[in-house]
Specification:
Layout (H helix, E strand, L loop, with lengths): L9 E12 L3 E17 L16 E16 L2 E8 L3 E7 L2
Amino acid sequence: MDDEPKQATSFNLLLGRNLADTGRFKTDAAVLIGMRESFADCPDSVLGYQCWADTEPDTEYDVNYGAVLTFTFDRTMVGVRVTGESTQALVGFRF
């Protein structure tokens, strides 16, 4: 089994709302739905590289789904984005 992380691109739409807003503190949640690369393949080059230099890989897409939850205090936001494929921590600063 191949447990190495794989790089992929995803395109997502977030549909959410504010759960709490006390002025200095805010909580927001969103549902994430979109599409992500699930498979990319191309013929190996004779030099041992993954693809020929002038050949784009064939890419297939699957549904991407998940949720986003953020907490904002003054100008700092922390949160989490969880999907069926990955989890990311979110940190943001408003200038």
